[in-house]
Design brief:
Blueprint: H1 32-36, E1 39-44, E2 51-56, E3 62-67, E4 71-76, E5 84-87, E6 96-98, E7 104-108, E8 117-121, E9 126-131, E10 138-143, E11 149-154, E12 159-163, E13 171-173, E14 181-184, E15 190-196, E16 202-208, E17 218-223, E18 229-234, E19 241-245, E20 250-254, E21 260-263, E22 283-285, E23 291-295, E24 300-305, E25 310-316, E26 324-327, E27 334-337, E28 341-345
Length: 356
Amino acid sequence: MSGVSIPAAPATPSTVLVPPPRDTRPPVGLVDGLFSRLGRGRVLKAHSKRVSDLAFSPDGTLAVTAAADALVAVHSVLTGGTPKTIPVKKHGAGAVAFTHAPGVVVTAATTPVDDALRSLDLHAAAYTQAYGGHTAGVTSVGVSPVDDALLSASLDGSVRLWDLRLPTARGVLRGLRGRPAVSFDAAGLVVGVAQSDAAAAQSVRLYDVRKYEVGPFCTLLMRETAAEVGRLSFSADGKAMLLTSVFLDEVAVGGTGAPALLSGAVSPAGNVPAEAEGLVMETSFTPDGAYVLAGTAGGEVVVWSVSSRREVARLGGHATAVGCVKWNPKYAMMASACQNVVFWTPPTDEPPSRAG
């Protein structure tokens, strides 16, 4: 898989509610055979409606979910419980992402009150800052891995670049179509902006975050399809990016060369559950960039090897479509969500060990 080589991002501060004990066990490497052995270590039922987004803290000890029931739930990876739920009825919460401030996440509003982003302190269960400017719903957010920069994309056709310490955007990209998606690369130097264009193709524009105002330095054609863009992400090793559609039929994995399409992620055409129509089913890289995880309309999680471009595992366990799935950045476990959140772990009676 070809791509731009980018230095690894530096370690980020802890964002735990309670400092975790030091884990002295050896790390677990990710290999093809590991994924088929994953079991449902915990099923967490904090939400009464579908989960819209899921994020791990940088140190891997917490998972936070936002859902259509206007709750933000804080889940402990080490105990397998949900120590806290935070009502956000007035503004709702769609997208959610951890910042570098301990115990602080950014959420995107989903109610008619406004279309702002907000910093939410998980300790105090209170907002600490609002970021106004978008005039329609926010579809995607991304926090820089190296500093306090924040990206947001919106149905108003704009992408905004923020400093989390300030309430107004420091830069705006306009004129985007449809449902754009954004992401930082692992070094925090490149901004990716994905959209579906007038020629019925999905493309990704790459900007230098230090001089985004001069325009993209590269535009990559990922897929020829009329489907709206779903989510965009970069691999941590800087070699590839992921682009998915609102209705996930294929996953485009690309770098500087021609993208590869990983197929078979969802139910066959004509056999998609009604509740999955229009749902953005997430795909994500494992931290080493070697595997791709995807939720399906049929309640499964699919794992592909990037190097071989083949499916290595398919895990059933959700009653409905899986909209969120991520591998923990520090521990050998995965989280996925429909309405319930599932922690997937290798077969062991102990808490999850560190990932290699």
